[in-house]
Amino acid sequence: MAIPFRNEGSEGSEGSEGSEGSEGSSGDTFVLSGISAYSGKITSPLLAFALWNTQGELTRSYGGTVGNPDTTVGRLPLETAFSRWSPEVRGHQYLFELVSNLSFDGTVANQARLQFPAGTLGVAANPYTMNSPTYEGLPQPKSLTDALAEVLNAAALRYDRKEEILTQVAVPYAFFAMVLNLQRGRHRFTFELMSAIFNLTDKVVMQFKHHFRVRRPADHSPLVQPILQTPNHSSYPAGHSTQCFFVADVLKKLIKNGAGAYPQGANVVDQLDKLAQRISENRVVAGVHFPEDMDKGADLGKQLAQYFIYMSTKAVVGDATAVQWLWSKAKAEWA
Questions:
Q1: SS3 label, residue 105
Q2: Count of beta carbons in the 10 Å neighbourhood of residue 167
Q3: pLDDT at 16
Q4: DSSP alpha helices (H): ranges in 76-116?
């Protein structure tokens, strides 16, 4: 579900055309000599030899001495370090920090528990408990027939929602950007925060999915015929639902924390909730989830949102954590 976040203009995002002022140079030459080749993202022996030759000529007058180096030693200040690391590297910090403070218990076959840190505010219960879906009861339950009927009935909406369904296979950054008027330049840390949320969702929801190991609708009936290839993991709970309700609740808190109010008006809360609901429903319409998968995914997402907010806004003791640093940067974008 989640994909690594990358800012526009980040390393490796150059186009195939030469830069302004490089009259007569071809796109291929630019790629071979551009910053991506310098960073190692593209292998370029041509550039490596050119740099080596240039270095030899530029430093010839130093006669093999080290010149006048910077002799500053010691750890980088925290703010300097976080600002210097790439978004991908910071992403590893966020994920490790967030996952390290959670504990998953799957010792009971039809139940799973997620333990949050002591003191986490806003969660419904700690540990948070999820039970097997009702349509999985044995022997063959009537509720499974009812659940399949709901999926088949939802297929009537496929024509109207097909574009949404197909584009929402990818992480739905664009849909949240549409509602909040997000722009990469103005809101780059808000995007980075969303990426941290989507990555955490993957790690947590897959634990629940693996524990329950629930079959998809199309595994039960050839009449479902999804318009997407059925994902190769468990149906319950729904990951898209988890991530969308998770990110919607965190964004509501972030925006209000930063601005003191909702700069676009109170409708932003309603619109984010409706967007999360619609994206979730689209997975049922597509034929890859049952409605109960969506409902439980939404509930899990809301609990994770409270955890994320707690980890981001709790009192700073010593240096700020990576998640606290990210929250402060994203919040400032809404001030």
A1: strand
A2: 12
A3: 42
A4: 78-84, 87-100
Structure tokens at 312: 């981001």
Instruction: Give the separation between CA 285 and CA 87, rounded to whole angstroms.
Output: 35
Question: Among all chains, which residue has been given the structure tokens 């840390």?
Answer: 189
* pLDDT value, residue 3: 46
CA contacts within 13 A on the Cβ side of 174: 5
User: 3-state SS of the chain: helix, strand, coil percent to 5?
Assistant: 55, 5, 40
Q: Distance between CA 105 and CA 118 in Å, rounded?
A: 16
Domain residue limits, the chain: 27-60, 90-332
CA distance 97 to 166: 33
Is the pLDDT at 130 greater than 80? The verdict is yes
Q: Is the peptide bond before 237 cis (omega within 30 degrees of 0)?
A: yes
Q: Which of 200, 192, 9 is nearest to 87 (CA)?
A: 192
Distance CA 87, CA 82 (A): 9
Class of domain 90-332: mainly alpha
